[in-house]
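Need a sequence for this fold. Nothing fancy.
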């Protein structure tokens, strides 16, 4: 089930996991309105995260095979169409917080496809 999320009604369903800072994805959707495959992929990602209760990384990875654990504190990158999203999954509190969203090119510029760079980025922004 893919739900049409926009800034007015994106939380009109019962969820098992809270998705915090969803405004980053809403902003991306508003910016890329003509990219239908991206819009569908974002909605599917939101559904995948919010309509499940992940108690451990294995649960998450069984639903989202694109989940790439980049830090042991629960940070994951996801591929959403041609975009990447960095999400903090807190399994103990059933919260997922979107930390960063951008194109694959922005991802490579910011994080250089390197876990050390990701770690420094998270530390500088006091996520870890």
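Here you go.
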């Amino acid at each position: 089930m893919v739900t049409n999320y926009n800034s007015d009604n994106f939380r009109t369903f019962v969820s098992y996991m809270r998705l915090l800072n969803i405004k980053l994805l809403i902003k991306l959707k508003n910016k890329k309105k003509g990219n239908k495959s991206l819009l569908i992929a974002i909605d599917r990602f939101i559904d995948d995260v919010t309509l499940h209760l992940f108690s451990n990384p294995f649960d998450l990875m069984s639903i989202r095979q694109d989940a790439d654990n980049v830090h042991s504190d629960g940070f994951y990158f996801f591929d959403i169409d041609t975009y990447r999203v960095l999400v903090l999954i807190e399994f103990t509190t059933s919260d997922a917080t979107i930390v960063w969203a951008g194109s694959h090119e922005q991802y490579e510029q910011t994080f250089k496809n390197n876990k050390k760079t990701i770690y420094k980025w998270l530390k500088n922004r006091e996520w870890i």
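For context: The chain has one domain: 18-124.
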